[in-house]
Design goal:
single chain; mainly alpha; two-stranded antiparallel sheet; 7 helices
Length: 130
């Protein structure tokens, strides 16, 4: 592992702790982000890269957003994830009503994270869609 990578990890951990980021809320964001940010996974390596990519976004968002904004972002993400899971469990209903749409607030958070998403794409060799 390179020194710059280790330094980056240490910096992110220190920054998150100084901002009071709740590790439980970061984990919830990590669990729900795949519902809105997708990438092709075609082998074990791409699956690992995708997991690292999602973690990268969640952790950097915790540093970028205020605690309140990160909490709201997590709630909006969870609401969308719940709607998407419900829609996938009832295909007939989804065909009738169409797929769920993210809220305007969630879209705004994702747009604010665009540079972070691109940085994490490059760092983890992932090309994502959302």
């Amino acid at each position: 592992m390179s020194k710059s990578y280790i330094c980056s990890i240490v910096f992110l951990i220190a920054a998150m702790q100084s901002k009071g980021a709740n590790m439980g809320s970061i984990e919830k964001v990590v669990n729900n982000l795949p519902m809105i940010i997708h990438a092709d996974i075609y082998d074990e390596e791409s699956e690992i890269n995708y997991g690292n990519f999602i973690n990268c976004i969640a952790r950097k968002a915790a540093v970028k957003f205020s605690n309140q904004d990160y909490k709201v972002f997590g709630e909006e993400l969870n609401n969308f994830s719940t709607k998407a899971e419900k829609a996938m469990s009832d295909v007939e209903e989804m065909l009738k009503n169409g797929p769920p749409r993210p809220s305007r607030k969630l879209i705004a958070y994702i747009e604010a994270l665009q540079p972070t998403i691109e940085e994490c794409e490059e760092a983890h060799n992932i090309r994502a869609e959302f």
